[in-house]
């Protein structure tokens, strides 16, 4: 009884101290703060917990878009955060030497050394990027194409097998397995065999969980105090994850190979002192390179099912450009498929592979005020542009939720000025010195996958509830109400489910695959 009274007394004393502090902080952040004039959700002005909650719910991109629609092109999305929604802001933030990566990127290391993603020093980042570029150059991409085609051949045979049994194919999962098989070969020269074996699939599952944690940390830095606890919790999957990665790295280290995979480049003598943790770099590389192609392909097939005129136009282009499935490879014929490229770009516009806001802050050595889209930004403010929100800004993309590949095509009567305006706001790979280095590799992998699938197969949505996977839900009040929008979940990269498709062989062209 005495102990209970003491605890009640301590709680009351703490409340007497904390309640006034809360009101003082609230008054300062809403009435006296340098960002007080900027509109935004009241809770976001008070605490980072607002953005953290949206990140936990995996709907940050939807909430940011809704707030831009309500408050305008500049919103306050945290006590010290400003979000912009214009192409001008993209240039002012991501191509401005006065801005650098936010200190929040340190939180993405999760106990390991810095990777290309989390490296803060600009010179250090530039040296790392030059070495990454060796693995992602045009020459390396051309040399790597046969390996991509080998993995894609496995993918196509699995689809062919589904035709025999009339089994729906869940595109997101199967495309993610394909993407990680491809990136595993490029990173380590190792066949992970996710498409055909269960063993290494735990790598994919745990990397998605890690990205989710990083995304929450970026919006709610206080969550970092729980990270050591979460990592210390015993988990069978965590042990399997470590075991699978260790086996893959051990196998690669035992190879005396001349191949130009990323591991051979990063572990060379010339890189000594540049990379603190090669395993961390490889894991980052696989994470950023494995899931985006899956998002693009899955989203595109979702929209082709719902826009039959686009499906018809794309299949006609592919089947009239090539004379056989084996002819589909990089070169002038594939490059001439302008409608294919337009469909890929429109898919990445509506469903960008990354949903995260890439936060920036003023460098320590910059002098004077820094402006973003004519707004003076106080020092210490986190600034950024959310790609999803910008890609759905009607100022740049009229009818932003409609799948319209023709908006990217130069045709008779098309509006060149409108297309130029759209292109300036199209940033699926972001821009500037920190832009994604794997753009060419993604376009190659996605183009080959789509062209070959449409050469060998026809498809349609699975019947019943399975065919609705990936759709929005009418009446949903959380931004997921559009039935014809492929739903994404923010785990830093985008994460999604579906569509479930029934494939049919096209004539006897499938004999190439047997």
First and last CA, distance: 79 Å
Overall CATH architecture: Orthogonal Bundle
Low-confidence stretches: none
Average pLDDT confidence is: 89
Protein name: Cytochrome P450
Jot down its keywords.
514 residues, mainly alpha, 12 strands, Cytochrome P450
Briefly characterize the structure.
52% of the residues lie in helices and 9% in strands. By secondary structure, it is mainly alpha-helical. It is globular.
Write the layout of secondary structure elements.
Layout: H1 2-32, H2 42-46, H3 49-56, H4 60-71, E1 74-76, E2 81-84, H5 87-94, E3 99-101, H6 122-136, H7 138-165, E4 169-170, H8 171-188, H9 201-219, H10 227-232, H11 236-254, H12 262-266, H13 278-290, H14 292-306, H15 308-321, H16 332-335, H17 338-350, E5 360-362, E6 370-372, E7 375-377, E8 382-385, H18 387-391, H19 416-424, H20 439-456, E9 457-461, E10 488-491, E11 493-496, E12 500-505
Parallel strand pairs: 2-8
Antiparallel strand pairs: 1-2, 3-5, 4-12, 6-7, 9-12, 10-11
What does this structure look like?
It is a single chain. The chain is mainly alpha-helical and 514 residues long. A hairpin with a 1-residue loop joins strand 10 and strand 11. The longest helix is centred in the first third of the chain and has 31 residues. The mean pLDDT is 89. This is Cytochrome P450.
């Amino acid at each position: 009884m005495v102990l209970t009274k003491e605890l009640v007394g301590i709680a009351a004393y703490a409340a007497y101290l904390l309640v006034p502090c809360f009101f003082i902080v609230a008054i300062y952040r809403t009435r006296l703060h340098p960002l007080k004039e900027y509109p935004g959700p009241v809770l976001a002005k008070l605490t980072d917990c607002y953005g953290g909650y949206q990140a936990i719910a995996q709907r940050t991109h939807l909430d940011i878009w809704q707030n831009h629609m309500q408050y305008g092109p500049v919103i306050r999305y945290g006590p010290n955060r400003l979000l912009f929604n214009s192409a001008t802001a993209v240039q002012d933030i991501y191509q401005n030497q006065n801005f650098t990566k936010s200190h929040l990127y340190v939180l993405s290391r999760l106990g390991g050394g810095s990777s290309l993603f989390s490296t803060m020093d600009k010179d250090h980042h530039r040296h790392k990027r030059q070495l990454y570029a060796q693995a992602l150059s045009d020459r390396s991409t051309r040399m790597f194409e046969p390996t991509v085609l080998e993995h894609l051949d496995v993918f196509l045979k699995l689809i062919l097998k589904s035709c025999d049994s009339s089994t729906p194919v869940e595109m997101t999962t199967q495309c993610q397995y394909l993407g990680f098989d491809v990136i595993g070969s490029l990173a380590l020269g190792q066949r992970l065999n996710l498409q055909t074996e269960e063993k290494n699939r735990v790598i994919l599952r745990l990397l998605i969980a890690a990205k989710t944690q990083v995304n929450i940390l970026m919006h709610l830095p206080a969550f970092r105090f729980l990270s050591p606890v979460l990592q210390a919790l015993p988990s069978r999957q965590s042990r399997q994850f470590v075991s699978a990665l260790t086996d893959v790295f051990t196998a690669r280290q035992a190879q005396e190979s001349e191949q130009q995979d990323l591991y051979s480049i990063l572990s060379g003598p010339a890189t000594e002192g540049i990379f603190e943790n090669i395993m961390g770099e490889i894991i980052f590389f696989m994470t950023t390179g494995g899931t985006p192609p899956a998002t693009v392909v899955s989203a595109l097939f979702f929209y082709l099912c719902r826009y039959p005129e686009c499906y018809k136009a794309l299949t006609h282009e592919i089947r009239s450009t090539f004379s056989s499935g084996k002819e589909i490879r990089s070169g002038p014929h594939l490059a001439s498929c302008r409608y294919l490229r337009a469909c890929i770009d429109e898919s990445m516009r509506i469903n960008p592979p990354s949903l995260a806001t890439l936060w920036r802050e003023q460098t320590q050595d910059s002098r004077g005020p820094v402006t973003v889209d004519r707004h003076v930004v106080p020092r210490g403010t986190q600034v950024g542009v959310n790609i999803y929100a910008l890609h759905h800004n009607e100022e740049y993309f009229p009818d932003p939720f409609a799948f319209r590949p023709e908006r990217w095509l130069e045709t008779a009567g098309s509006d060149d000025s409108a297309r130029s305006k759209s292109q300036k706001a199209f940033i699926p790979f972001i821009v500037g010195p920190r832009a994604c280095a794997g753009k060419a590799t993604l376009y190659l992998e996605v183009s080959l996958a789509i062209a070959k699938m449409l050469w060998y197969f026809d498809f349609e949505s699975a019947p019943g509830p399975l065919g609705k996977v990936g759709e929005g839900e009418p009446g949903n009040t959380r931004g997921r109400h559009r039935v014809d929008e492929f739903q994404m979940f923010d785990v830093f990269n985008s994460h999604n489910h579906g569509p479930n498709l029934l494939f049919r062989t096209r004539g006897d062209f499938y004999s190439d695959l047997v």
